[in-house]
Specification:
Rossmann fold, nine-stranded mixed beta sheet, binds zinc ion
Length: 245
Amino acid sequence: MKKLLSLLAVFSLVAFLAGAASAQQADSLRVLLTFGGHGFQEEPFFAMFDALPGVEYTKAPLPEKADLFKPGLEKQFDVIVMYDMVSGFKPEQQQAFVELLNTGIGVVSLHHNMGAHRDWAEFPKIIGGKFIFEPAAFEGKEYQKSTWSHGEDLKVTVVDREHPITRGLDDFEIHDETYGGYFTSSNVHVLLKTDHPKNDPNLAWTTQYGKSRVFYLMLGHDRLAWENPAYSKLLDRGIRWVAGR
Ligand SMILES: [Zn+2]
């Protein structure tokens, strides 16, 4: 009898630990993180993701891992964070990516990802903007080539103080790269703005594509931006919001 009782105790302990482990797994967000097509400071970039509490991420270098982006991926990952500037996907990969976004997987797009997929007309509709390499028209307006400038100090204004990503966040300053003359879709909801003369006013926004929530943040060239406390806060909240948490 004593033996049976201790066996029962061991069983319930194992069951308790298994329950705790799966609860922890259910709480942590699974992120697939793309990069490639543009250089960046890898060590501090991944260190920022290492420091995000409750986020587990897997690296997806592009274009090597482009075939991952198809329906079914949403069962393994809650959110795709895109920091790549891949030149393009093959037509069948583009179609699979659109189908994936109809599953509702969350999407966070950062910085130079705005210049990815430069010849794919659907991509600006997905992330709500486009860095322009050749003059083109969007929503009936002509755009010239976009510009950039390194090492600028930007004043950032929170324009939506109620949104879960920016709620309680104070206006802040950041040392970062500016982008000028890019396209912002009329379908986005702007969260952050700047008055920097070399930057377009819209710095961060949310939008929806298919069933997916999308958060785009223009900032984030290097460690001087990533180490700004406001940056990791926006990234963390953006990941949670697109995941529906
Ligand atoms: Zn940059």
